[in-house]
Amino acid sequence: MTLSEFPVVFPPDFPDATGLIHLTETGSTNDEARRLFAAQPEGNVSPVWIMTDRQISGRGRMGRNWSSPEGNLMTSLMCKPRCDLSTMGQLGFVAGLAVQESIQEMTTLSAKLKWPNDVLIEGAKCAGILLETLSNEAQEIGLAIGIGINLRHHPIDTPYRAISLNAAVGVSPTTRDMIRVLALHFDRLRVLLESRGFSAIRTLWLEQAYGIGKEITAVLTNESLTGVFRDIDAEGRLLLEKSDGSIHLIAAGDIFFGATKGKIND
Q: What InterPro entries does the record tag this protein with (predicted)?
């Protein structure tokens, strides 16, 4: 597929030189981002948001299915970050903050950030983020930042509480209005990351973090750890303090609040 075959437009209400593709249906917006990046000419990659009305094969972290009913925002940002592969994960914190700020701008709700990449309302999951690396024939590395926001609907068959904006306040923004605000917030925070480094993003993220100082269970690949969520470090890793005072750095895992796995809130 060549670049000209993608229906990219550059809306005037989006950040400068940022494109938008609006699809009726797709398997996964991250897969669309992968195809789009592969078609980009070497060294010439403009960021493009891809949104869809219906997503039939949406996925979350660790290959989990992501519920994608029409009326929710299902989108991915295809971009070529100005950083190396080892620090691309910092854009997940940028994306989380952008979602949190967008929800608060578009509603009266107070949204909070759950490590590493969820957004909560009233302690229930409202949005999730999935980062996947991309490549093209020139062996350039790009990033797909997949974002799902429960605007009108939320699942009920999950191991954690979920919520939608509609369930929380009775109304929800349109997907087009939400992606416009999201694109603007993301671009501003991306510029902040590039100009002032991850420490500036970390400070903002911690101000909106859910559960610092609370007991958590971290479910890792081969074990589970229970302790207190103390902080995130300069690389975005979660600091868990066990009852003996030892500190464990967690780079990836599922976090549950309270001593019982499955509880996302107190």
A: aa-tRNA-synth_II/BPL/LPL, Biotin_CoA_COase_ligase, BPL_C, BPL_LPL_catalytic, Transcriptional_repressor_C
**Whole-angstrom distance, CA of residue 255 vs CA of residue 251:** 11
Give the rounded distance of the alpha carbon of 30 from its chain centre: 12
Going by DSSP bridges, is the β-strand pair 254-257/224-232 parallel, antiparallel, or unpaired? unpaired
Model's pTM, two decimal places?
A: 0.91
Q: Give residue 119's domain range.
A: 3-207
Query: Are residues 95 and 139 located together in one domain of the fold?
Result: yes
Whether 266 maps to a domain, the answer reads: no
CA distance 71 to 150: 8
DSSP code of residue 83: S
Last residue of some domain: 165, 186, 207? 207
Q: Out of 3-12, 70-79, 106-115, 194-203, which region has the weakest mean confidence (pLDDT)?
A: 3-12
In angstroms, the Cα distances linking 213 to 48, 92, 155, 206, 220 are: 38, 22, 29, 12, 20
Distance, CA of 185 to CA of 175 (rounded, Å): 15
Same domain assignment for residues 179 and 236? no
Reading the block at residue 65, the tokens are 């299915």
With H, G, I as helix, E, B as strand and everything else as coil, classify residue 129: strand
State the CATH number of the domain containing residue 184. Answer: 3.30.930.10
**Which residue has tokens 């549950």?**
256
For the sheet containing 73-79, what is the strand order? Answer: 19-26, 48-55, 73-79, 141-149, 124-135, 118-121, 111-114
Tokens 């902040």, residue located: 192
86 in a domain, yes or no? yes
